[in-house]
Amino acid sequence: LITRAFRRQFIIPEFQDFCKDIEEIYWKCKDNSNGKVASYIPQLKRMSPNYWGVSVCTIDGQRFSLGDVSIPFTIQSCNKPLTYGIALDLLGSEVVHSYVGQEPSGRNFNELILDHNKKPHNPMINAGAIMVCALLKTVAGPEMSLAEKFDFTMNYFERLAGNEDLGFNNAVFLSERECADRNYALGFYMREHKCFPENCKLKECLDFYFQCCSLETSCDQLAVMGSTLANGGICPLSEEKVLKPESVRDVLSLMHSCGMYDYSGQFAFKVGVPAKSGVSGGMLVVIPNVMGICLWSPPLDALGNSCRGVQFCEELIKKFNFHRY
Ligand code: DON
């Protein structure tokens, strides 16, 4: 890192200038008072609408953070691309995609629908993510207990974050499980259509899904996970190869087409980079071969995306040509 610094060989050579621009956009978005904090469980409802954090980690480990970047929040749906990546790494794309599709659903993230093959549309919506959890839970190692599988997955996440300790919010987990009628309905609907791998225990599978949503992270940590994706699966901080490049390619492709709920098409059009948002207001953004960005602000727009997060991305693309096309 030091040698590169002397030679000015960083992917963003004028990093200080870049950070100044990020700062400017940050303050502009701070004034955005649109949106509502998720209220389906009390732990999310209590989150302050004023929280606003931006963290950046480049593929060569340059970092910048501003605002509420160390406050823990539950990862919620931002776990979906990561658990999908782990499943791809363990099982390969062919196996994973014999259970879940690659098509945007064009519907709500928790809609009770399957595609024409009677598979969930993609791993970024609830049905698909529940299926990915079933795969991790059964095919990857049926002999593992739920506890072992949780530790195993947690360890993967921590390696994606450069060996940082992540948390687990038990209150959120318990609440998720209490308010999960729709997720149970999705599970039963998929079981009715014989979507699951053999030996899948539905209740355990859903518990595992709620646990993955209840992992606690911070803006800083999630930006590092994003940078691991931006760097083809090698964490820029630990230099460990955590995911295979072919798994990362699949993950980014589906984040690009399906990561932003029913705004995914517009986001791909306007911003043009892979991203995934979650109901706690987190947004994982990947600029391939450049950096990972995490944006976190709890107020959500009508489609479920963080208002400040989306605005930040749109402003960023006005200033820098990160759009893939
Ligand atoms: O399954 C749920 O209802 C939530 N825990 C999922 C969270 C979320 O961010 C929605 N995303 N697709």
UniProtKB/TrEMBL annotation:
It comes from the Eukaryota. Its EC number is 3.5.1.2. The keyword Chloroplast does not apply. It is an enzyme of class 3 (hydrolase). It catalyses: L-glutamine + H2O = L-glutamate + NH4(+). Keywords: ANK repeat, Hydrolase, Repeat. One of its GO terms (molecular function) is glutaminase activity. Belongs to the glutaminase family. Homotetramer. This is glutaminase.
